[in-house]
Amino acid sequence: MIDEITDFVLDWADGFGLIGLAIVSSTEAAFQPVPPDLLVMPMSLSADGPLELFLIFSVATLSSVLGSLGGYAIGFYGGRPLLERFASTDNSEKLDNLVSRYGSAGIFIAAVSPIPYKALAWTAGAGKMNIRIFIVAGLIGRGIRFGLEVTILGFYGDEFLSQLENPLAWLMLGIFSIFIYSIMKPWWNKISSNL
């Protein structure tokens, strides 16, 4: 079901270029499940030059942060009942603590990481986090996330793709992923209401 939704959204948005990217980026940060990365990456690979890459980066970043204000409003007005309906109690508590303990750093972590940005936007809204801090943390985090994707694929796309054929690259990526996971997993598990 999710694959069908993803395919439909991507096929639809692809026909609209940057406008489609803006719509997917903004709605993903508020409520829908399709990440804008699935458009940012192929658009970056096929970009004609630095100006087009800058536009892809800018549209993805600004639209995502603008959309997260919708997610913030959903959390602000929907509050705890909304979070409890769509997230498990454990994850809801962890997101609450991520925002309450780390504030803008928590938003930054979600903006860069695979944690669903909309879930943190809802949590920030429900917790009535300072909206200016929320926006700045989102701009920095989303800027880094999309900036890396656009830079690597836009400027080094062919080299990057050729490295994917190298088994050593996959080995190094696997080792790096295990290292990051071993650091992040205990930290994530410790974020609970009783600490």
Description:
The chain is globular, with a radius of gyration of 17 Å. The protein has helices at 2-14, 18-28, 37-45, 50-86, 89-102, 104-112, 117-126, 131-163, 167-190. It folds into two domains: 2-156, no CATH class; 164-195. Helices cover 82% and strands 0% of the residues. It is an all-alpha fold.
How many distinct helices?
A: 9
Helix content: over 70%
List how many beta strands DSSP finds: 0
- Topology as H/E string? HHHHHHHHH
Q: How much β-strand is present in the residues?
A: under 5%
Radius of gyration: 17 Å
- Structural class of the helix and strand makeup? mainly alpha
Low-pLDDT stretches? none
Mean pLDDT across every amino acid position:
83
Number of domains: 2
- Please describe the biggest sheet, giving its number of strands, its sense, and whether it closes into a barrel: none
Report the principal-axis shape.
globular
Condensed summary:
This protein has 195 residues and is an all-alpha fold. The protein has 9 helices and no strands.
